[in-house]
Amino acid sequence: MKILLTGATGFIGHHLIKSLPASDELIVVSRQAPHGRQAIPHPNVSLYPLDAIKDVNDIDVIINLAGEPIIGKRWSASQKQILCQSRWQTTDNLVNLIAQSTPKPRVLINASAVGIYGTNQPHAVDEATAIEPPLDFAQEICRTWEQKALAAQSSLTRVSLIRIGIVLGDGGALAKMKLPFSLGLGGKIADGHQGMSWVHIDDLVALLQHCIHDPHYHGLYNATAPNPVSNREFTQALGQQLQRPTCLPMPAFMLNVLLGESAMLLTQGQWVLPKRAIAQGFHFKFPDLAAALQDIYPQSRP
């Protein structure tokens, strides 16, 4: 199988690549120089900038994980443009390549995020939940991103849209949380009532593998565990696993000062359920948070 992948150097991309058979031929679209292939854990890989890809005639699967990290910088006008274009422009380019190619790739798997549901949702949401205006910035990014990817849908190319929650693994977002918790500086964010829709990296990779191989996986999928938790519950579970106190809350006003508009992604949240994946028989290896954290940090507790 020949796979074209964007976002290969990110946390999700790295784990996905490790799950691919050595017999697959991997084309990585990257801004890195060709010697960057040494950092990609696959024996049969080639690196190209996107503008060097002239067609995708011989590509079986395209997986688009590209996108500037949305948390960590204030959403200035220039940063908003970077966040949008890093997702939209790459997707437009891939869709155009698919439209011009014969034969066409059989599947485009395109990342999205649970931020499309909006924040501070008091009730559980799933793939059937309507996305209605007015939309906040994170919702608009995801809605446009998905619309652009769906333009590739045809009788020859199916499109799977993966709305990803907080990905837990030994790296990524959890690695950033671990340090303050390990120092005893962990605590709930704001009032701690906001929902946190998370997924273990192994379950996310398994869902992506289903989308690669199973022709019944098309359309929207929430890549979240079936048991979302509140921020307070998440904080307590991580503190217990690391055997550290969690008594230093992060006030909402402080995050608003530090991060501005983007603080909403931390101080608010949503309760997202993976109904479509479950309906199609997908089995979550880690449906509960305690088991997921035990798998990631097994040395922390007996």
Please outline the helices and strands.
Blueprint: E1 2-6, H1 11-19, E2 25-29, E3 45-48, E4 61-64, H2 77-100, E5 107-113, E6 124-125, H3 137-150, E7 158-164, E8 166-168, H4 172-182, E9 195-196, E10 198-200, H5 201-213, E11 219-223, E12 229-230, H6 231-242, H7 252-259, H8 264-267, E13 271-272, H9 275-279, H10 289-296
Helix pairs in contact: 1-5, 2-3, 6-10
Secondary structural class: alpha/beta
Helix percentage range: 25-40%
> How many helix segments?
10
Main β-sheet description: 7 strands, parallel
- The strand count comes to 13
- Runs in which pLDDT lies below 50 for 5 or more consecutive residues are none
Radius of gyration: 19 Å
Global morphology: globular
Please write the string of helix (H) and strand (E) elements.
EHEEEHEEHEEHEEHEEHHHEHH
Q: Approximately how much beta-strand content do the residues carry?
A: 15-25%
Multimerization status: single chain
Average pLDDT level: 92
| Termini separation | 42 Å
Largest beta sheet: strand ordering = 3-2-1-4-5-7-11
Give an account of the 3D structure.
This protein is an alpha/beta fold. It has helices at 11-19, 77-100, 137-150, 172-182, 201-213, 231-242, 252-259, 264-267, 275-279, 289-296; strands spanning 2-6, 25-29, 45-48, 61-64, 107-113, 124-125, 158-164, 166-168, 195-196, 198-200, 219-223, 229-230, 271-272. It is globular and about 60 Å long. The N and C termini lie far apart (42 Å). The mean pLDDT is 92.
